[in-house]
Amino acid sequence: MRIIAGTLRSRTLQAPPGLATRPTSDRLRETLFNVLAPRIAGAHFLDLYAGSGAVGIEALSRGARSVVFVERAAVPLKTVRANLARLGLRDGFEVFAGTVAAFLKRGGADSGFDLVFIDPPYDGESEYGAALGLLGSSAAGLLNGDALVIAEHRRNSQPDESYGVLTRDRLLKQGDAALSFYRRTSEVAKPGDIE
To answer: Is 65 a member of any domain?
Structure first.
C-alpha cells in the first residue's frame, strides 16, 4: 500500500497481517479522494474501523486539519501507530483504542467532523447498521451540518438507504467494492448511482 497524493505521496504503509482486516485498495482510495477533493483541505476527518490507517493518513497527506483513528483490535491498532510513526507524523491526529460504538457514544470534545469514513471488516456486516445508526441518531451531534459520511462495503451488499437523519445520496461502485455517501436528510439533493 502507498499514499497516493499530497505531502506524503508515494510513501508506503504497512498492512496488518492476516485476513482479519481488508485494507482499502489504492484504486478505491484514489476514487474516494477524487470525490472528496473539494472538501478535504482543513477538514476534521473521522476514520472508523481504521485498520492500517491508510484512509485517515491519506486525508492528512491531502490537507485534512485533523484525523481521529478509531480501532479496537490490537494488531491493526499497532499497525496504525507504526504507520504514523514511520511517516514522522506527530500531531494533527488522535488514535482512539476502543470500539466504534464506545467512541460514538462518548461524544464530547471530538465533535464537528466534516468527513466520516466507515470500513468495518466485511464479516462485520452488522457494524454498518450500528455505526450508521448511531451517526444518524444519538451521535449526530458529532457531525458538522454539511458532514459527509462514507461507508465502504461489498458491491452486492449495501447498507440501508437511510439511518435516522442520514440518507444515502450517492452510490459509487468499483470492482467488488462500493462506496455509499450519506448526508443529513436536509442536505440531500437527489439520489444517484454512479458505476
So the answer is: yes
> Which of 96, 159, 113, 155 has the alpha carbon at shortest distance from 133?
159
Residue 19 has pLDDT above 90, yes or no: no
Spatial separation of the C-alpha atoms in residues 189 and 181, rounded to whole Å: 12
Say yes or no to pLDDT of 22 above 70: no
Residue with the three cell numbers 481521529:
68
In a domain, 157, yes or no: yes
Q: Give the pLDDT score at 24.
A: 73
Domain range enclosing 79: 26-194
